[in-house]
Every structure is written in C-alpha cells, then in structure tokens.
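Supplementary Methods. Inverse-folding protocol.

Structures were first reduced to a discrete structure-token string of length 479. This string, shown here, constituted the complete conditioning input.
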C-alpha cells in the first residue's frame, strides 16, 4: 500500500496506527489509578510500587531507538505487528500476575512491545502520507489520540478497578490488541527495509543504556532501604555511571548509533533533551504521587481518582488537537514551552499545600487545571525544537531522542521523588507523627522537588532555546 491507494484506505490505516498508540497511552495512565489497589493486593512497599511504572518506562525508553533500527531490518509493518503481539501477550501476563516480581517482569515485557510498536508508527505514517497538508492533518489526529487517550485511561482505569478489580486494566488490552493486529495485517503498507542499516544494528548500545538506567533507578529506589553510603548503593550507582560512559563510547564508534552524538552539536536538540528529562521527572511523579494522595489520604475510590484526573487530561487533549500549534505559529517555540513548563511547575507546588483533610476543589482542582494547560502548551514545541534543528534525513532520530529522554527522565525522576517521599514519611513516623500526616508530608516534599525540576526546565527553555524564523511552516500537529 502506498499513496496511490484510495484515500479511504490510508485513513483506515491511520486509524489502525492511532488505535495502537491508544493502547500505549491507555497503559500509561490507566495504571496510575490502580496503583493503590495493586499495592494492597500484592503487598508492594511504597518505594517498590514505583517499579510497576518504572519497569515499563525503562524498557520502553531503552528499546525505542533500537526498535527503529529493527524496523529497517525486518520491515516497519512486521515490527509493528510484532510489537502489538508482544504488548498483548504481556498484558495478558500482567492481568494474571500473582506476585510483585511477576507483575514487574510482565510490565517490562509490555514496555518492550510498546517500544517496538511506537518506534515504527511514525515511519509508517510517513509512508502513508507524503503530501504536506495531509501529513500535518494525520499527525494532528495522532497527537490528539496520544493526549486524549489519557482521559480515557483514567476513567477506564477507575471504572474497571472500582467495578471489577485491577487485573482488568491490563486484560482490556487483549481485545484491542487482537483487533489492531488484524487491521494492521490488511491495511498497513509493507516495506521500510534498509539493507545498509540492517547490517549495523546497535544491540550493545541499547542493552548498555537500558542496563545503566535500570541500575540507576534500582540504586535510587533502594538507597532509602539499605542506606545511601553503603557498598551496595554506591556500587550500583557507580556501575551505572560506568555503563553510561561505555554507552557514549559505543555510540561514538558504531556505524549506525542509537544516539548519534553529532546531533548534539545542534543547540535545540541538546536543550530539548535536557528539558525533556527535567519535565518528565516532575510530571511522572505528579501523576504517580497525586494518585496515591487521593486514594490513601483522601480515601477516594478508583473511579473518583479517574474523574479527578479528567480536567488535566481533557485540557491536554484540547491543546494537542490544534491550539498548541496555533500558539507556536503566533509566538514561536520559546514562549509556549517556557510558560507551559512554568505553569506545570506551579501545579506541582500547589499540591504541596494539600492537607490531610483536603477537598478536591480546594486542594486539587487548581493543580489539575494548571498541569493540563502547562503540559498542553509545552509538549508540541518541545518536540518541534528538536525536530526543526535536525537535518531532514535525521528528524526521526531527533524525535526519538527527545521521546527517549522524556521516558528516561520520567523513570529516574519517579525513582528519586518516590524515595524522597518515602524517606520523609519514615522519618516523621519515627518521630511520632500521625501516619496520614507523615504520608502527606512525604508527598509534599516530593511535589516541591518535582516543581523545582520543572522550573529548571522552564528556565532552561527561556535562556537557551534558539528560535527559528521559519517555524510556522514546519508545525507538524494541528490544522
């Protein structure tokens, strides 16, 4: 299939890609609502609970770039179908998980399947739509599904967890995965093989950076348990640092690197990746810890938690469907990105005043609205800042880099902030503070640090991002 096929075939193919993307987005947001139920049922500690999210983020981010290279070897359609299959099977395993370790391993496999799926979705879309206006429209719909799917995820997660149990948040992926697999077989274009790239797959780069990040997260998460100045913690973090240095060396030597170091000579690519790490560190912790606050402190039901997240997700979806692109066309990249991140930072700081006997309207709603506006404003210009500064033949790699930085920043940030919250809570309980008050104070500390991360990201955008005069002609989202 190619652009000579009737328009209706290409738009049905786009719908298939969007449905696959919806699975990934659903899985990111649907889990947050069910975390307290998973914690109670499987006996997770608050610190180890972060691995339910981190196991997915690490394999997803670690293999996202490698997935693109595998698409060159086996074809984009085949890899998309392989990713859907792996994701669906892993979802089945997650749904029947009976222990902490089983669920974490299944989540890691789910992240791997999601990485293969996501890595080639954009390439398939480029194959389907070569005309500029149609491509912009297609990417607009894809972006809308990516943001709007969060709204579906929080509501569906609350409904399934409250009505049935947490297992169904994973089992719901199975019928969707079967449908996507069938549609992709008939509708997606074949091809995408690149014999030159296929000879040089950077497996060692992917394995090295994934191992480095997993060790870093493990060292951070367990630092509160075994102590920070211990052989285990220092050895784990030291090994992670060594592996990261080895990864940089590998990328400087291999023929087709996962992370071409030459791209970082472009200022906006380097700045975008730094911003992505800082922003994700705050935002992923915001979703994770605020869900715990709503359920464990305010005693919300899973469905009530889902409804509480709805304002933020609806606003983000509205911005992604075109409003963010209009802001970029009017004000450029720097202002929407820095202002958006500043609003997201305020949203985190506001949650640091939420009390033990708080209410949604007084303590939570303002934060939800500000995060929705801020994230909705910032996400599109962050991606554009990386893509517009890259050479045309490497724009996909640049986009993959900033997405990978976002996922890795989310995993590491969540590990750091969850550990801060747990450490603060344990210290207060040891000092005789009431359990709920200690728990809330722990969340407060993490929210403040997350707000600082995001504020640094906003400042970095304002000071170092380079504006481009021709940005209005290159906006990929919206209409």
């Amino acid at each position: 299939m190619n652009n000579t096929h009737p328009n209706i075939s290409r738009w049905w193919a786009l719908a298939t890609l969007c449905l696959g993307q919806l699975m990934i987005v659903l899985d990111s947001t649907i889990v947050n609502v069910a975390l307290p139920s998973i914690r109670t049922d499987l006996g997770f500690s608050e610190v180890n609970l972060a691995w339910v999210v981190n196991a997915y983020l690490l394999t997803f981010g670690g293999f996202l770039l490698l997935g693109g290279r595998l698409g060159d070897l086996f074809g984009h359609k085949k890899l998309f179908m392989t990713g859907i299959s792996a994701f669906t099977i892993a979802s089945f395993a997650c749904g029947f998980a009976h222990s902490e370790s089983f669920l974490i391993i299944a989540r890691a496999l789910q992240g791997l399947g999601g990485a293969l799926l996501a890595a080639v979705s954009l390439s398939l879309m480029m194959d389907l739509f070569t005309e500029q206006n149609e491509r912009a429209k297609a990417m607009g719909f894809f972006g809308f599904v990516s943001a709007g799917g969060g709204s579906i995820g929080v509501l569906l997660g609350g409904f399934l967890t409250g009505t049935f149990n947490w297992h169904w948040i994973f089992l719901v992926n199975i019928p969707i995965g079967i449908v996507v697999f069938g549609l992709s077989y008939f509708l997606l274009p074949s091809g995408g093989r690149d014999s030159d790239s296929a000879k040089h797959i950077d497996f060692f780069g992917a394995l090295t950076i994934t191992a480095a990040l997993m060790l870093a997260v493990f060292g951070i998460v367990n630092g509160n348990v075994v102590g920070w100045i211990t052989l285990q913690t220092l050895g784990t973090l030291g090994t992670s640092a060594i592996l990261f240095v080895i990864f940089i060396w590998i990328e400087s030597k291999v023929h087709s690197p996962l992370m071409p170091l030459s791209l970082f000579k472009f200022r906006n690519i380097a700045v975008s990746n730094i911003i992505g790490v800082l922003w994700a560190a705050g935002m992923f912790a915001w979703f994770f810890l605020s869900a715990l606050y709503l359920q464990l402190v305010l005693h919300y039901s899973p469905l009530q938690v889902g409804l509480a997240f709805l304002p933020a997700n609806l606003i983000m979806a509205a911005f992604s469907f075109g409003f963010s692109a209009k802001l970029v066309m009017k004000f450029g990249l720097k202002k929407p990105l820095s202002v958006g991140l500043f609003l997201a930072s305020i949203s985190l700081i506001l949650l640091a005043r939420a009390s033990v006997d708080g209410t949604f309207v007084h303590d939570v709603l303002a934060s939800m609205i500000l995060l929705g506006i801020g994230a909705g404003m910032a996400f599109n210009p962050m991606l554009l800042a990386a893509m517009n500064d890259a050479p045309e033949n490497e724009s996909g790699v640049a986009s993959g880099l900033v997405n990978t930085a976002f996922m890795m920043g989310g995993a590491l940030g969540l590990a750091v902030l969850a550990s801060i919250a747990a450490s603060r809570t344990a210290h207060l309980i040891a000092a005789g503070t009431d359990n709920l008050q200690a728990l809330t104070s722990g969340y407060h500390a993490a929210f403040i640090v997350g707000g600082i991360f995001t504020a640094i990201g906003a400042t970095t955008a304002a000071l170092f991002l380079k504006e481009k005069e021709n940005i209005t002609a290159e906006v990929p989202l919206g209409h």
